[in-house]
Structure formats: structure tokens, C-alpha cells
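Let's study a protein:

===
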Amino acid sequence: MTNSVACRIETALHTYVGTKSQTEIAKAVGFNSPNMLSMVKSGKVKLPLKRVPALCRELGIPLEELLLLAMSEEYPEPEANPLWIAFGGRMPDADELRDLMGRRP
């Protein structure tokens, strides 16, 4: 499976055990259209970075994991990625971001 935002969201939705429908999840995340989540899941549109935290909360995805994927897709050239710049010319891993944000696994 490709390591992408679309694949990660599709997997999370497939294993989702909550009671919300995909439309309700899309609304809770803040999408104006319920179809937006479907378009992100299919890879037709990028996940807006501002929606990452809410989507992680709704689907139980570790924030650091989805943030790294979304940032890499938003900034395909590493040198333009703010995380690359902040970490001195390299991309951090999820553990480093978790530590930086003061979160525990």
C-alpha cells in the first residue's frame, strides 16, 4: 500500500469503529461538503493542513503520522517543507514530532 494521506485515511475509515457516518465525520472535521472527505480519501484533492488535527481526532489517527504525510504531499520538494527547514535539512520522524509537541505515544 502506498504511503499517502489518501491511503491512510481510507485505512482509518475502513477500520473505524465509531458511530458517525462518513458524512458526519466530514462535517465534524469542518469540510463544507461531505464529498470533500471522499475526494481526499480517493486522492483527488489534498487534505488541507488545517483539517489534519480534527480528522486525526475523529478517526483515531496519530497526529504526527498524518501531519508528516500531509506536509510531504503539500511540499513535495523537501527544501520547501517547513519541517525540513526546522529540523536542519532533514525530515523528522513521528517520534521526534511527538517529543517536540510534548505528547506521549
